[in-house]
């Protein structure tokens, strides 16, 4: 962490806001390419917005005159809404493009859509797409900043950043923590981005899944694989659950939902193997009785699921502000 400015982390929100942060990237397409210094720059600035968003006046119009287009080819509640809120609270004009009623439904390619949007002189495009690599292709065709809001099974960088911020807010650090990511690792872009980000920040990451939902060569991510929930959760500081990504499955990966929850769903009995002060994360939507039981999902002492939503707005505000310096 030699490049990280510790003095910025210890500042008050007002001081940090007045201190220029350097961010040497035009786009945010994934975790690859980000340094630890880059990540902490985002997290430090996001903390400023946590405080700002809890005040009655949430506006901070530093992006007045800028335009953000939300280009979502997949359904989304949390991510799209938080990008919209982030943009509007920073004073940007925000357009939510309805793909279902756009020329995409008439057969328009992503490149043609990109060229059309580019001609409108947008400043940011947040894209979610079912195909891995779509944001990278878009970034090569437009003049504005592109933010990956999730591409296929590849990455979801802002989700990993908000997860890291949630952990940091409760644990005070990330380095040295034991984090277990449980569920459909194979198809999850959230798992992939978190494995990259949390290991980059020094966490000891475990992934817990049935053999059919475990990626090949998981050790290449710097994580430790487990097939048994109790072993995987033992002495963990953070437990993250993931839903089954059925929309990305072309065959049956589990015998039944009932059997899946019995072995890999999070309940009190399995959670008891983690540390007593361990927190629970889930990117949502949560499928109660499948990835996690309702009792744990609603446990305000351990479940940080709703707090993750709050952190998501702050992180996306920070990303927009930092990328604005490169537009």
Radius of gyration: 19 Å
Distance between the termini: 27 Å
Total strands: 9
Q: Helix count?
A: 13
* Uncertain regions spanning at least 5 consecutive residues: 1-19
- Main sheet, how many strands, which sense, barrel? 5 strands, parallel
User: What's the pLDDT, averaged over the residues?
Assistant: 89
Order of helices and strands: HHHEHEHEHEHEHEEHEHHEHH
What is the general shape?
A: globular
User: What is the structural class?
Assistant: alpha/beta
**Estimated helix fraction:** 25-40%
Strand proportion, as a percent range, falls in 5-15%
| Strand order, sheet with most strands | 7-6-5-8-9
Care to describe what's here?
The structure is a single chain. With 327 residues, the protein is an alpha/beta fold. Helices cover 39% and strands 14% of the residues. It has helices at 6-9, 13-18, 36-53, 78-89, 110-119, 134-141, 157-171, 189-200, 229-233, 257-264, 268-271, 294-297, 305-324, and strands at 67-72, 93-98, 124-129, 145-151, 178-182, 204-208, 224-226, 238-241, 279-281. It has a 5-stranded parallel sheet. A 4-stranded parallel sheet has the order 2-1-3-4, sandwiched between helices. Helix 4 (78-89) packs across helix 13 (305-324) and helix 7 (157-171) packs across helix 8 (189-200). The longest helix has 20 residues, at 305-324. It starts with 5 loop residues before the first helix and ends with a helix.
């Amino acid at each position: 962490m030699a490049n990280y400015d510790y003095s910025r982390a210890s500042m008050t929100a007002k001081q940090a806001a007045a201190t220029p942060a350097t961010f040497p990237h035009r786009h945010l397409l994934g975790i690859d390419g980000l340094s630890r210094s880059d990540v902490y720059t985002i997290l430090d600035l996001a903390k400023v917005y946590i405080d700002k968003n809890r005040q009655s006046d949430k506006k901070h119009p530093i992006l007045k005159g800028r335009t953000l287009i939300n280009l979502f080819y997949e359904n989304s509640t949390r991510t799209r809404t938080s990008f919209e809120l982030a943009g509007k609270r920073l004073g940007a004009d925000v357009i939510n493009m309805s793909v279902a009623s756009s020329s995409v439904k008439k057969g328009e390619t992503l490149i043609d859509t990109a060229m059309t949007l580019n001609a409108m002189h947008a400043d940011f495009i947040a894209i979610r797409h079912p195909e891995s690599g779509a944001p990278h292709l878009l970034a090569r065709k437009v003049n504005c900043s592109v933010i990956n809001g999730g591409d296929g099974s590849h990455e979801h960088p802002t989700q990993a950043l908000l997860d890291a911020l949630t952990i940091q807010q409760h644990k005070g650090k990330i380095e040295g923590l034991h984090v277990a990511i449980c569920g459909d690792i194979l198809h999850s872009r959230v798992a992939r981005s978190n494995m990259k980000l949390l290991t980059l920040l020094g966490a000891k990451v475990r992934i817990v899944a049935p053999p059919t939902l475990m990626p090949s060569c998981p050790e290449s991510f710097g994580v430790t694989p487990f097939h048994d929930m109790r072993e995987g959760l033992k002495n963990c500081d953070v437990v993250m659950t993931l839903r089954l990504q059925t929309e990305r499955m072309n065959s049956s990966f589990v015998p039944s939902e009932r059997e899946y929850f019995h072995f890999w769903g999070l309940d009190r009995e399995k959670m008891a193997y983690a540390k007593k002060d361990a927190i629970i994360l889930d990117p949502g939507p949560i499928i109660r009785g499948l990835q996690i039981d309702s009792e744990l999902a609603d446990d305000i002492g351990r479940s940080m699921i709703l707090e993750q939503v709050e952190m998501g707005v702050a992180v996306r505000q920070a990303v927009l502000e930092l990328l604005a310096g490169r537009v």
